[in-house]
Specification:
With 493 residues, the protein is an alpha+beta fold. The protein has 17 helices and 15 strands. It folds into 3 domains: 203 residues, Histidine kinase-like ATPase, C-terminal domain (Heat Shock Protein 90, 2-Layer Sandwich), CATH 3.30.565.10; 127 residues, Ribosomal Protein S5, domain 2 (2-Layer Sandwich); 110 residues, no CATH class. Helix 1 packs antiparallel against helix 5, helix 2 packs across helix 7 and helix 13 packs across helix 15.
Length: 493
């Protein structure tokens, strides 16, 4: 018979260990700001105080009751397996605590809800002395509570977080340490301006650091009309990828604009993928080990959006500063990266001549009807340019049902081109070709969309099956056609 026994970790040892999970000051503060945004705050104020040696983050969010505040102060206050709201930027219920401990030894939180202010405090010195899992409640008349309560006086509801005894930031009271502290403040400003740029651009939130309102920095430089937006990709509704190629330096007004577009870490470090989770930037400036960073790749930046349901697929960590693409995304990520990099090299080496043509230099070329693509095996295929200016204008005049019908027809144009039907296209598939699981799932997804539209417009099952038998891309689905058809039919009901 198995005999269980309790194995409760030492409070002192575990909490001391949590201080070294790998936060930087800027990622720690960003993690704490996540809580404010999850609470629907529209104002977030951050004070980094050298004199009082503390960090205060206050917001006008929804606030918490006494019980909710105490629960939020628990280590692991939420189940990571629970589904999350699209507005929730958390996952593990540990971010605020671990981020705060990485900065200082005392975390005091006040929350105002319906005019009532409650407080709770983790004091690691107290934990070290007593080795107990005990959260402290400060006397409401104490100077620290009175001071922090004033931060909430202008809000109906809200929360203020105070991190004091910031030994991880200030080791000695020297001039050199002071310079380092103020350099850290600049890093925090730059980091927050990037990580939360979409929230600030949309007007959802205003973030201030030491009373300076942050200006969002959009890495895709949308205000420069010479920027190129390549065709977006979608992975079965889970991931949306939007590749951009930034303008050649000759397309900026001056050197200051070029430097600003490069980002606070410089052009080389800002090239690559930008992974967003619920619009919050998680990882940026990475090629996921597809290739090394090179100067000619500097203009390629790729926006990749996931939601909180994809956290485990993408191995999002507690710090929200790591993401690893799942296997089902590998092929599309590689294809998108290669396309963006190739175009970046072309623009980088062009000295700006790529847009020098008569008429509107930003207008798309009418002859750009077909796009060439290369898959993970190096095989090429041709697909219609879904962003062609004439096609976009046509879609504006169509209903949703008509758009679906048009999409189905364009898909047939691609799949039934003479080159594909004749077998010339080396991307063609047949029964002897082994597809990776991710490629197969994407093919099934596209097949269902086509079947659904054809059924809605009167096509019979046998007619659609006969069509699939003629299409090299879809012939690998024939053995499973009945199941795919049934699923597509049921989903369209």
């Amino acid at each position: 018979m198995t005999e269980p026994f309790d194995s409760i970790p030492s409070a002192n040892i575990l909490l001391s260990s949590l201080r070294s999970v790998g936060y930087t000051p800027e990622t720690a503060i960003a993690d704490i700001v996540d809580n404010s945004l999850s609470a629907n705050a529209s104002i977030v104020k951050i004070e980094l105080d050298w004199v009082k040696q503390r960090i205060i983050i206050s917001d006008n969010g929804e606030g918490m009751t006494k019980s909710n505040l105490r629960k939020s102060m628990s280590i692991g206050s939420s189940d990571p397996l629970e589904s999350r709201s699209i507005h929730d930027l958390g996952r593990f219920g540990m971010g605020m605590k671990t981020a705060s401990f990485s900065l200082g030894k005392k975390l005091t939180v006040l929350s105002k809800f319906k005019s009532r202010i409650n407080n709770a405090c983790w004091d690691l010195d107290y934990v070290r002395e007593n080795d107990k899992w005990q959260i402290l409640i400060e006397d409401k008349s104490s100077l620290i509570i009175s001071d922090l309560s004033n931060k909430l006086s202008e809000y109906v509801n809200g929360t203020v977080i105070c991190i004091s005894s910031i030994d991880k930031l200030i080791a000695t009271n020297t001039e050199q340490e002071k310079k380092k502290f103020y350099k850290m403040i600049e890093n925090v400003k730059n980091h927050l301006s990037l990580v939360f740029h979409r929230f600030m651009e949309s007007g959802k939130v205003s973030i201030r650091v030491n009373n300076e309102r942050l200006t969002p920095w959009n890495p895709f430089i949308p205000k420069n009309n010479a920027r190129q937006e390549l065709e977006p990709e979608e992975i079965v509704g889970k991931v949306i990828i939007r590749p951009y190629v930034l303008p050649h330096k000759t397309k900026f007004s001056n050197d200051d604009e070029v430097k600003k577009a490069g980002g606070y870490k410089g052009w080389l470090k800002h090239q690559g993928f930008y992974v967003y989770r619920n619009e919050r930037l998680i990882v940026y400036g990475t090629w996921f080990d597809l290739f090394k960073k090179e100067m000619p790749f500097n203009l390629a930046r790729i926006q990749l959006d996931i939601n909180s349901d994809s956290d485990f697929d993408w191995q999002i960590d507690i710090k929200k500063s790591k993401a690893v693409p799942p296997a089902y995304a590998d092929a599309i990520i590689r294809r998108t990266a290669e396309k963006a990099v190739n175009q970046s090299v072309k623009v980088y080496n062009s000295r700006g001549s790529y847009t020098e043509r008569t008429g509107n230099i930003n207008a798309p070329q009418l002859s750009y009807v077909w796009e060439q693509r290369k898959d993970s095996k190096g095989s090429y295929s041709f697909v219609l340019n879904k962003k062609h200016t004439l096609l976009n204008k046509l879609k504006l005049s169509l209903t949703d049902e008509q758009k679906d019908l048009l999409t189905a027809y364009l898909s047939l144009v691609e799949k039934c081109s003479p080159m594909i039907l004749s077998g010339v296209n080396d991307m063609s598939l047949n029964n002897n070709v082994s597809l990776q699981q991710s490629d197969y799932e994407n093919l099934v997804y596209l097949a269902k969309q086509l079947i659904s539209t054809l059924v809605k417009n009167g096509s019979a099952k046998e007619e659609i099956k006969e069509l699939f038998q003629q299409l090299p891309d879809y012939i690998v689905l024939i053995d499973n056609f009945d199941n795919i058809f049934t699923e597509a039919y049921n989903e369209s009901e």
